Amino acid sequence: MKPIVAVVGRPNVGKSTLVNRLAQTSDAIVHESRGVTRDRSYHTADWNGREFTIVDTGGIEPLKSDDVFATSIRDQALAAAEEAAVILFVVDGRTGVTEEDESVARMLKRCDKPVFLLVNKLDNPDRENDSIWEFYSLGIGEPTPLSALHGHGTGDLLDDIVALL
Ligand code: GDP
Ligand code: MG
């Protein structure tokens, strides 16, 4: 079985966009609005001949209340984290730290897996990379700036991922 890399985080931070980029496909569904999360989808990625499975969390079923929503994000993250060798925790550098981010972070701290904290949507590295600093407060370690949309940072990220597999 190929090693598993799980992508977790609250809705709309760019998880599916990142999965599409890392797996070089476009079969992870990218949503324009928040309010959807459910299943996990599995994609094959290959970096310099090293194959791994990348798991996107978040699918198509709308959820009801905010409470159920927050619980589901955490449960999704937990389920994905349990089967993963490496976890990619994606946050949104343009909105900053949210309570949902903190909830996911608390869960991740309890599972003993390597976690990359990825601060996404930093499309202009020269101007925006200072946005990463506030994410130290999540207690996950060093935040890495990223633009899943434009690809900034994704080559280095893939190098770092396969080094751990
Ligand atoms: P998910 O819910 O975490 O899977 O997020 P999606 O991948 O569905 O993306 C949510 C929205 O954020 C979409 O409109 C994406 O185009 C946008 N998005 C994702 N990554 C980036 C990025 O690096 N930069 C910018 N500006 N937008 C992004
Ligand atoms: Mg998604």
Automatic annotation (TrEMBL):
Residues 3-165 form the EngA-type G domain. GTP 1 binds at residues 9-16, 56-60, 120-123. It comes from the Bacteria. GTPase that plays an essential role in the late steps of ribosome biogenesis. Belongs to the TRAFAC class TrmE-Era-EngA-EngB-Septin-like GTPase superfamily. EngA (Der) GTPase family. Associates with the 50S ribosomal subunit. This is GTPase Der. It comes from Collinsella aerofaciens (strain ATCC 25986 / DSM 3979 / JCM 10188 / KCTC 3647 / NCTC 11838 / VPI 1003). The gene is der. The chain holds residues 1 to 165 of 444 of the full protein.
